[in-house]
Amino acid sequence: MDPLHLKKLNAERRTRRAVMLVTDLGDGRDRIVREGDVVGGALGEAIGETFRSGRSGSVEVEGRTFFLNVHIPHPRLVVIGAVHISQALAPMAKLAGFDMEIIDPRTAFASKERFPDVPLFAEWPEVVLKDRPLDTYTALAAVTHDPKIDDFALKAALETGCFYVGALGSRKTHASRGERLAAMGVGAEAIARIHSPIGLNIGAASPAEIAVAVLAQIIQALRSRGMAETKGEAA
């Protein structure tokens, strides 16, 4: 590997950006491709699919063989609200490979007794996210039903480009939420990215079922980055 490419690769990984080393196995030449870089033709399609799957491997394109060595940041799930849905979601998210953390300034909810194995921040999102910023490999789920807590986090997630942004609430609740976010300077296109009602539409009713629907929708968003979004709804 070109030492300069190694330096660039490590720099991208430190900043939690998806990056790939593309090596032509015929002549040994390699290059760095960042997620979102434009690469045309069949090779570009293979690169896009590899970024979405997160699995390295070789591909044959027009009689040439390339090895695609992809480096994907570990996905992170930030949940705004230490509620029953969050309690059910925590063990599922861990099994699915997400680093999950919960933010809720309401200390009656945000207690270690209720969430013994999850990083828990009993502070306002404005405070926590200043030191623990969101990024494009973070999913944010706002489930408090309290605009004073949810709205700032949703705005931050949309501005940062989180790969998933979801919020609990009915369509009527979400319409009011959209008006508030617009008044905060969030554009209509960004607001349309919010999955609300949150979760895939599987008829979920209980907190555990809603947690399943939410996690499924988050995984769908993670594995379809760069493709047309299909929104589902649950709660």
TrEMBL record:
Q: What is this protein called?
A: XdhC family protein
**Could you name the domain of life of the organism this protein comes from?**
Bacteria
Q: Which Pfam families match?
A: XdhC_C
Which segments constitute the XdhC Rossmann domain?
77-218
